[in-house]
Design goal:
The chain is α/β, with parallel strands linked by helices. It has a single domain, classed as Dehydroquinase, class II (Rossmann fold, 3-Layer(aba) Sandwich), CATH 3.40.50.9100. The protein is built from five helices and five strands. The radius of gyration is 15 Å and the shape is globular. The N and C termini lie far apart (33 Å). Bound molecules: 1,3,4-trihydroxy-5-OXO-cyclohexanecarboxylic acid.
């Protein structure tokens, strides 16, 4: 009997507040792709890379904390995290990233450093392994490539 293949490594892709509005929300900044479109692109790229992706979105800070802990408990390969506005404010998400071993890669569609001053601080980036920002939907794909190589 053939051996069952080992499970593919999983990468959690966590999205914070208002990212469910992609496609409608300020398209001149965030582009016209919806979050479902981005999830589809990530699934295609994941197949090529030999990993699985689990794409989630919540408007609630605590859900993001729970999912970072879950990714760690389930020995995910990495977390791609676009925490939306919580990027700039959330000590709880910063602490969650610090509390776990799973590498967390910060992702942004826009380049926050080119925008309002309040976006120049990143509580996520201070704890994350690395950051990909400013490339629209491509930011997620570049981050997935990095995650697969970790
Ligand atoms: C964002 C940048 C954040 O400043 C903003 O609050 C978002 C989206 C981005 O992907 O460019 O919600 O994370």
């Amino acid at each position: 009997m053939a051996d069952t293949p080992p499970p593919r490594p999983i990468v959690f892709v966590l999205n914070g507040p208002n990212l469910n509005m992609l496609g409608l929300r300020e398209p001149e900044i965030y582009g016209s792709d919806t979050l479902d479109d981005i999830a589809g692109m990530l699934e295609d790229r994941a197949r090529e890379l030999g990993v699985d992706v689990d794409v989630r979105q919540s408007n609630h800070e605590g859900h993001l904390v729970d999912w970072i802990q879950q990714a760690n408990a389930e020995r995910a390969k990495a977390v791609l995290l676009n925490a939306g506005a919580y990027t700039h404010t959330s000590v709880a998400i910063h602490d969650a990233i610090k509390a776990v071993n799973v590498p967390v890669i910060e992702v942004h569609l826009s380049n926050p450093h080119r925008r309002e001053g309040f976006r120049h601080v990143s509580r996520v980036g201070e704890a994350a392994k690395g950051t990909v920002a400013g490339f629209g939907a491509l930011s997620y794909l570049l981050a997935l490539d990095a995650a697969a190589k970790l």
